[in-house]
Design a protein that fits this description.
Elements: H1 4-7, H2 16-30, H3 44-64, H4 67-78, H5 86-92, E1 99-104, E2 109-114, E3 122-129, E4 135-139, H6 140-145, E5 155-163, E6 170-178
Parallel strand pairs: 1-6
Antiparallel strand pairs: 2-3, 3-4, 5-6
Helix pairs in contact: 2-3
Domain J: 3-77
Protein name: Diphthamide biosynthesis protein 4
Pfam family, one: Zn_ribbon_CSL
Amino acid sequence: MMTHYEALAVTPNANYGEIRAKYRAAILALHPDKLDPVSESSSSQQQAGTISSFLRVQEAWKVLRDADSRAAYDTLLLSDDGLETHSSMRRRSESACVIGEEVMLEEMEESVGEDEGGGTEKVFEYWYPCRCGEFFAVSETELKEAGLDSGEEHVQRCAIVLPCHSCSLHLRVFFWASIPS
C-alpha cells in the first residue's frame, strides 16, 4: 500500500513547503491534459496508470496540506490495522480511493435500531447521504472497535473511510479516539 508521503515522494517529516513543491511538480508531470491520446508509444494501460497516479497525488495533497487531516492520517499510519472486518479493508483501501467528502462524526445522522441478536440492547448507526442518493454508514460498534472516545482522559483525532453502498465514492469520517496508556 502506497502512503500519501510515497505518492508525493517526500518523507513523513517533510515540511509544508517541501510537500507543496513536490505536489506541484507531480501534478505538472502527471496531468491528464499532458497525455497524448494518439501517441503509439503510450498504451491505454500506461495512460490509465498515469491517471491513477495523478489521482493518488491529488488525494495525498488534499490530506497532507491540512495540519489536522495530516495529523489524523499520521495517526492511522502509526496505528495497527485495527479491525479484521470490512472496516480494516476500508482503511487499507484509503490510499487507493479518492475521498469525495470529509465530515466529523457529529455531522452524521444518528439512528437507533434493535440488537440483531434479538436482545433488548439498542444499536446506534451513523449515516451520511451520498451524492448518488444512497448513503455511507458505520455502526457505533465499529467505531468503538476503532477506538471511539470512551470517556478516557487522553484522546486523539482519528478517521475511518467509508464506501458508499451503491457507487464508488468514499467518505472520510473524523472522530475522537482514546489513546492507549
